[in-house]
Amino acid sequence: MHKLFIGMATIAFSATSFAQQSGLEACAEIEDSLERLVCYDNLAKKEQSGEQQRQDRELPEQARKGKQKAAEMREKAQERREQANERFGFEHKERADTEDERISVTLADREEGPYGKWRITLTNGQVWKQTDSGYFSWDGDSYYIERGALNSFFFGREGSNRRMRVQRVK
């Protein structure tokens, strides 16, 4: 009885193995790497759900679905490349058109840190720190933060052409 069970298990295993092997061979014959990957993914999903026998009948259908999915993915990738090529070099200009280049700010607090660099707290809760080593005159009460080139920012005082490079901390 025990030998009969082992024999039946061996036959069932070899039949499943043969079905899986034929599916793997069919996927291996697909030349396009993306379609082949989709075919292997579909085989793995079918194996996990225990539908190995139905898979052998649906193998041509799986290959067709894999080709469709691969074609869709190629189209989407091509569209993304074309969009990126159209915007190339204008990324900063598109952003600059929608955002302010200069804002007026009111100081809540300022403190001089190590090496003579300033830490500025604004009334709206933003905190900025000085990144360059220039001198800045604090005479007056009308200040601004201005966008510079290459995503830099400058803190300045209205009526003065002196300004310091700053970076937002908080």
Could you describe the 3D structure shown?
It is built from four helices and seven strands, in the order ααααβββββββ. The protein has 170 residues and is α+β, with helices and mostly antiparallel strands. Strands 1-5-6-7-4-3-2 form a seven-stranded antiparallel β-sheet, with no helix packed on it. 11% of the residues are buried. Keywords: Signal.
Per-chain topology:
Layout (H helix, E strand, L loop, with lengths): L1 H27 L4 H17 L2 H36 L3 H8 L3 E4 L1 E6 L5 E5 L4 E4 L12 E5 L5 E5 L5 E6 L2
Antiparallel strand pairs: 1-5, 2-3, 3-4, 4-7, 5-6, 6-7
Helix pairs in contact: 1-2, 1-3, 2-3
What can be said about this structure in brief?
InterPro entries: UCP023238. The protein is an alpha+beta fold.
Write down the domain tally.
Answer: 2
Distance between the termini: 77 Å
Mean pLDDT, to the nearest integer, reads: 76
Could you state the order of secondary-structure elements as H and E? HHHHEEEEEEE
Largest sheet: 7 strands, antiparallel
Radius of gyration: 33 Å
- Percent helix range: 40-55%
Q: Kindly report the spatial arrangement of strands forming the biggest sheet.
A: 1-5-6-7-4-3-2
Share of β-strand residues? 15-25%
The quaternary organization reads as single chain
* Number of β-strand runs: 7
Count of helical regions: 4
